[in-house]
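#struct-help
A.M.: can someone run this one for me? Single chain, 315 residues.
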Amino acid sequence: MTQRRHTLKLLAVAVTLGVLPMQHAIAATTEKPKVALVMKSLANEFFRTMEDGAKAHQKQNATYDLVANGIKDETDTAGQIKIVEQMIAQRVNVIVIAPVDSKALVPVMKTAIDKGILVVNIDNQFDVAALKEKGLSIPFVGPDNRVGAQLVGSHLAKQLKAGDKVGVIEGTSTTFNAQQRTLGFQDAMKAAGVQVVAVQSGHWEIGKGNTVASAMLREYPDLKALLCGNDNMALGAVAAVKSAGKADAVKIVGYDNIMAIKPMLTAGRVDATAEQYAAKQAVFGIETGLKAFADKTPQAALPAHVKTPVELVTK
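D.P.: on it. Structure tokens below:
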């Protein structure tokens, strides 16, 4: 009886102080989930727009906490891995990531998933073979980049003749979205009988896109068009074409529909681009992750691909 009274007293104290294990569990379930948005270079307007869209969504909803991070440039793989490691250490609930490299980020994503963090992939798709090797299933929430590039390329092809020569300025070649956009451009050119005489990486950046475009124009003086994997590189190509005195002879297309490309479209210096809704890209991924978290859906049970829209944009 004495032991029983002692136990009841301890329980009473625990209730008063609010330290019962069950109360801890209840408190934990009422905390807002924490979402980490890990992007590529915030020097790229596309990702700044993506970040703005995510922050606006979080402000409107206020049902989750958001931590947004980006890297210094489009090749800073080590920097992005470090950011993911920091998010794991901070015990976030969901990571929504636009990986700078389709393969190199897979091992650290496995670490996150093994820690119980839900991972959602946006913008640039993880390499399927690399995921399979690690036994991972990570949903890709985003557009069909090959289809988007084919739309842009087909529009351009209507202004070219069979046998014309064009060059492709590709994003970082180790990224899936860069590869898919190049394939989409090639699909459109092949269908029109147009020759793709060069494919070189501009690493998604204005300066590098300018350097590659200038080199292509020197090597192929009869080039009729430059198909660029994003609008940053298209802006670099515009400057290169102008410097070469070929503004009226070489057509340019891009991809992303960033604000900086709109004056180029209006002026006819860029012929077309693709709208993939940068402000909504992260939101689509965040909503997928939050739903899985709320429903307690395990990583392996998440859908393989959630398609988002992509549309042709012209003058």
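A.M.: thanks! Confidence is low (pLDDT under 50) at residues 1-29.
D.P.: also worth noting: The CA atoms of residues 262 and 315 lie 8 Å apart.
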